[in-house]
């Protein structure tokens, strides 16, 4: 939602105004489904082709364009009037994507016209959000220790990965993880 607030400020403000009882953060958590489940197949093929070449920033760009297009349609089309969408904006966004009024070419052109949305910026926002969520978890649980997050490959969190990369330019994150696990197992388990 932070990225949308920066790059689609008018749309976010509009949706916050017409949907006061709805937590837009929860709606924006489903942004990936707008693309993957909502868009027509011909749009999805072109987007995925760009995604495989450019990376995750393509999906963020497309999601921002969807928000902006939906905002424009809500202001000009009776089907998407505030009264029709205010109670279920999440499903309205998916339905809008299914009937998206632009071609795949126009959608991607608009997506790549967004400036200042780099992979570095996205990673920075991701890490900042992750740190905020971890600090909330600590405050809510009353614990003084951070919960260690692990990826599906059992790798450290993104912040830990950055710290490891700063310490070691010779080993990859996976190699450091394997080495530390090996040391831990042999030092504490074999002696215990």
From TrEMBL:
Pfam families: RabGAP-TBC (PF00566)
Protein name listed in UniProt: (Mediterranean fruit fly) hypothetical protein
Gene3D superfamilies xrefs: Ypt/Rab-GAP domain of gyp1p, domain 3
Biological source species: Ceratitis capitata
InterPro entries tied to this protein: Rab-GAP-TBC_dom
Start and end residues of each Rab-GAP TBC domain: 5-73
């Amino acid at each position: 939602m932070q990225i949308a607030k920066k790059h689609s400020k008018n749309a976010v403000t509009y949706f916050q105004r017409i949907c006061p009882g709805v937590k837009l953060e929860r709606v924006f958590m489903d942004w990936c489904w707008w693309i993957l489940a909502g868009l027509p197949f011909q749009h999805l093929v072109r987007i995925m082709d760009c995604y495989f070449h450019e990376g995750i920033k393509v999906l963020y760009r497309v999601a921002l364009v969807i928000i902006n297009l939906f905002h424009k349609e809500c202001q000009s089309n009776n089907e998407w009037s505030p009264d029709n969408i205010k109670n279920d904006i999440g499903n309205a966004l998916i339905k809008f994507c299914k009937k998206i009024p632009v071609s795949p070419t126009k959608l991607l052109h608009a997506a790549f016209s967004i400036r200042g949305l780099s992979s570095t910026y996205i990673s920075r926002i991701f890490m900042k959000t992750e740190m905020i969520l971890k600090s909330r978890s600590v405050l809510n649980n009353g614990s003084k220790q951070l919960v260690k997050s692990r990826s599906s490959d059992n790798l450290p969190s993104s912040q830990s990965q950055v710290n490891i990369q700063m310490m070691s330019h010779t080993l990859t994150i996976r190699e450091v993880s394997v080495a530390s696990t090996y040391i831990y197992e042999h030092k504490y388990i074999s002696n215990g």
